[in-house]
Design goal:
The protein has about 140 residues and is an alpha+beta fold. The chain is built from 5 helices and 3 strands, in the order ααααβαββ. The protein has a 3-stranded antiparallel sheet with strand order 1-3-2, with no helix packed on it. β2 and β3 form a beta hairpin. α3 packs across α4.
Length: about 140
């Protein structure tokens, strides 16, 4: 079983509408999508895909980073290879006064890989991983 983070695809028209011409938007979209697939893709590969020079690619990546569009580069981990074969989502209902204690507590538990505040019947949804279902 493989667990991967899911990064949404960024639409070309949304990116193209952010500060620039259609060509600049196309390049931005292509760069971002390629980096989402492989954060270690080379400038040479990006350059070939966008039909612009490597220094131009590097400058555009730098601008995307400075603008806060690209916020980091991440590794996708196969949790199954680390012997974490069980993934679960836990829904929690908290009172607002409990959140001050809840967040530090959840942050200290290594099995919680994500915790999101949501609306509806529950106030939090936690994504957790375990090696087995055994107690």
């Amino acid at each position: 079983m493989t667990f991967e983070s899911k990064t949404p695809k960024i639409l070309t028209n949304v990116i193209g509408s952010y500060e620039g011409t259609l060509t600049y938007g196309y390049h931005r979209s292509k760069i971002i999508n390629m980096l989402q697939k492989n954060a270690r893709v080379s400038l040479k590969e990006l350059s070939a895909a966008c039909f612009i020079s490597s220094p131009a690619i590097a400058a555009r990546i730098n601008k995307l980073e400075k603008a806060g569009i690209i916020t980091g580069y991440h590794t996708t981990v196969n949790l199954g290879k680390l012997n974490y074969h069980v993934k679960a989502f836990i829904q929690v209902q908290l009172e607002p006064s409990q959140k001050k204690e809840f967040y530090p507590y959840v942050d200290s538990i290594p099995n919680v890989i994500e915790c999101n505040c949501v609306t509806g019947d529950y106030s939090e949804v936690m994504e957790v991983i375990f090696e087995t279902t055994a107690a």
